[in-house]
Target: GTPase Der
Amino acid sequence: MAGIVAVVGRPNVGKSTFFNRMIQRREAIVDAVSGVTRDRHYGKSDWAGKEFSLIDTGGYVVGSDDVFEKEIDKQVELAIAEADAILFMVDVEAGITGMDEDVARLLRKVEKPIFLVVNKVDNAARLEDAVEFYNLGLGDYYPLSSINGSGTGELLDALVKVLPDEEIPEENLPRFAVVGRPNAGKSSFINALIGEDRYIVTDIAGTTRDSIDTRYNRFGFEFNLVDTAGIRRKSKVKEDLEFYSVMRSVRAIEHSDVCLLLLDATRGFDGQVQNIFWLAERNNKGIVILVNKWDKVEKETASVKEYTQKIKEVIAPFTDVPILFISATNKQRIYKAIETAVEVYNNRSRRIPTRKLNDLMLPIIENRPPPATKGKYVKIKFITQLPTPYPQFAFFCNLPQYVKDPYKRFLENQLRKHFDFTGVPMSIFMRKK
Ligand code: GDP
Ligand code: GDP
Model:
């Protein structure tokens, strides 16, 4: 993982247009390979061989105009805390506004790389107009047009220069990230897990002391806990901001192999928990769902079975995920949680020998071949698992474009039925042979 880039700016400057252009350029490539799902506010892009995550911070802000003014401070604050580089977007059509000046004032104090992006520079006349943005006191700017793409290359050249290089982990230890909303019990869980008072636990969200990746040797397992501080760093940001938990989770998730997604049993698997879940899924990370504070739940009103069922409805079709009911404060099933995370880690690394894969899958496919489309029959000839960090399977066939999602899901389910891929997203794609 090579860096997080946040796009900040007031509404209507063109942040989402820019974001979509960046993501689509890549999606076009990625989609063909692995069928990655789209997200409106978070995506991956790359330039000159360097990959980075792009976050459209504005995409998370909803509300009326005066809400925007307050939200924009939070956007910028979060971007400063979490991103490796910040793109501050302004609009040449509108010129400098008061809100732009406010953001610029915040950014001038920041040490991280900041790129002032003057958008909507669609033609040469507007290039001249852009000069006024020197007045923001942020130095040089990058004029571009998110609509026609001109100028984006220059920006990206400069951007990738300041982004960190891909980290190659020194050791092959599983990397676990504990993620979830504020107050889900993440620090309590880690505390229970490592059995020392390394972390201060309080009732107030986000007061936990900073920490970086730490290596543990507990219960006979060795693993690294990833960037928990990124999730729990002290911040003035209001805890119920959807953006908060998502952005805080991005880095931890990207750095991990397996995410332990904690939720407060009394609050449920709500929209914000779901966002974090899909973020992990889209990043192809292993997932273990930990329903925490189970000690607080009246067992008469909600059984494990019903609770599990409800979560599965929400995470469908990716339901092959372990769901455990724990209590961090009572240290209930803490060991089981780590044991399960290690299993999921192993599942994610699982490689099925080609021979075994074909011996099993070809007869299944013969029994239930892909449905014919426009009178054409798809013939799948062989299957292979790719040498990637998470399970990806290529099915070689005559007419890859005719195989639709329901059939791909059927293939995935068959693979899951015969091999243990619990907790692990997988990609199925068709290739021409
Ligand atoms: P956001 O609120 O910052 O995410 O802004 P949007 O991406 O929704 O864009 C706001 C408006 O500006 C839309 O009508 C876009 O079509 C328009 N827009 C965005 N980029 C450009 C550009 O490069 N040139 C022009 N002329 N318009 C643009
Ligand atoms: P974080 O923000 O996700 O790190 O959450 P904390 O670990 O700070 O926990 C938030 C609050 O929930 C604290 O008051 C904890 O004592 C409480 N808490 C955490 N885990 C449990 C649990 O398993 N059961 C109960 N009853 N309370 C818990």
User: Anything to note?
Assistant: Residues 354-432 form a domain with the GMP Synthetase; Chain A, domain 3 fold (CATH 3.30.300.20). DSSP finds 13 helices and 15 strands in the chain. The chain has three domains: 3-162, 175-349, 354-432.
